[in-house]
Structures are given as structure tokens and as C-alpha cells.
Hints:
By secondary structure, this protein is an alpha+beta fold. It is built from eight helices and 18 strands.
Amino acid sequence: xxxxxxxxxxxxxxxxxxxxxxxxxxxxxxxxxxxxxxxxxxxxxxxxxxxxxxxxxxxxxxxxxxxxxxxxxxxxxxxxxxxxxxxxxxxxxxxxxxxxxxxxxxxxxxxxxxxxxxxxxxxxxxxxxxxxxxxxxxxxxxxxxxxxxxxxxxxxxxxxxxxxxxxxxxxxxxxxxxxxxxxxxxxxxxxxxxxxxxxxxxxxxxxxxxxxxxxxxxxxxxxxxxxxxxxxxxxxxxxxxxxxxxxxxxxxxxxxxxxxxxxxxxxxxxxxxxxxxxxxxxxxxxxxxxxxxxxxxxxxxxxxxx
Length: 306
């Protein structure tokens, strides 16, 4: 291949652009652990280390929770101090191995960039603070898990999170609620005002719900089309119903304007609270979805408990 051919087929990132990304990574990317091998749902997942201490293990009480039988309930302690990341095995059943060497229980070990940590059958890689790979991984994960139009989490992210929160609620004995809602007669909005207007309604609704109607620990996702889901951690039914009514009333009272035209918008809402014996995310979600259907059958623009 000639040099001319090669130059035509190669994209070169300018030095200024790359330097800028390096500076951004240095400022924004904390140290991180990335799962290289393990349960399929975890492979590629990145855990930023931006607090002073973490416990990695199988227990749902762990700050880095990996649901794999080869990982002990409390497997590794991770401590961050003065820019250094120190790990110590917590007398785990299957030990902790770093770069092929087994750590003694309770003996601290300082991690270095690209160290590989094996906990049971799970392998993670350590990325130091400011690592461009950690920064890029975070960007890619964020884009993959967020809906481009509304900013809410995607259906895929919801399907991954659902079983996790069910297990957490079961393990910790926490209340768990789910809100499912969709826009009433959304097809008519598209038909009457046009699809760009429909996109505007979806975009604005995502912004309003995310910034005004959800809390820091809530998980807000777009399930598909005009249907949305909010998972409410450690939230009883009474509070979930109050939040649902606030969502319904806020959307009804919002003036959605597009190209000088006001678009009236309402939502129908279904709410469910996890039953004590409920261990299936699918069954739990279905009760919320059935409640949403009841709201739509009952006249729309209302909240129904499942």
C-alpha cells in the first residue's frame, strides 16, 4: 500500500484533541475497577473508586456487589488514601490473587495501574486516577445505558437493574416500589402535531421527571416508546403513591409548547409495592404494568395501585 493510500484510510486525532481528552481524564476520571471476566451482566462494568473505602463481595450490602457464587459475601476491602488504592483480602474462601500472586488475608497490597485482581472466578483490572481508558469506558457505558432523546436509562439498563434491586430488597428487608407510566394518546399527538412535536414532548417529559420528580436514589428509565419506569429503593407504597400523583399532576399542569403551539399532555400511572414473598422482577414489574393498564382502562390521567 502506498503512503498516499495509507493516509486516505487513516484518521489521525489532532494533538490538541488528544491532549484535551488527557487533561479531561486527569480531572474527571477517578481510579476504577473494570470487570474483565465474570457473570455476563458484569463484564465490562466499571466501578469508579471515588470514596474512601469499599467492600467488594457477593452480599447486596457491599458497595461493589458482584453476584457470583465464587465470590465471598465480603471478599476484598478497598481503601483510597492520599492518591493510593490499597486492597486487602477479607479471609475469603477462594482467596484474592493479584497478577498471579495470592494475597494473605488482612495484609494490605498497593495496586498499580493495569494490575489484574482475581476474586474467585471474577477478574478485574485496576485503572489509576486520570487513566484515559477509565475515562473512555465511563463515557461509553454512560452512552450505552442512556436514552439519547430523553436522558433516562434505557430498557436494557432497566432489565439489568431490576433483578438486582429485587435481590437487594429481599436481602435487606427493604421496601421496594415501582412506578410505570405512559403518555395518554401519544399517537394522536404525533398525528396532530407531527413527530418532531412528539419528540419534543418526550424530551421535555424526561427532563421534568429527572430534574423535578425523582430523588437521587431513584432509577428512571424509558421502557419503550412513550412508556417510562421509576424504581423507588427503600420506599413504601404510600410514598410511591404520593410521588405517582405528583408526576400525574405535574405533567397535566405543564404547558408543552412546540413551534408556538401548546400541546396538552397527560399520563396514566400504575404503582406496585414488592410483596414479602416476591423474588421475581418479572412478576413484580407485571403487577405495576397491570396497574398502568387499569388506569388506561379506567379513563386515563389517573393513578392505580397494583
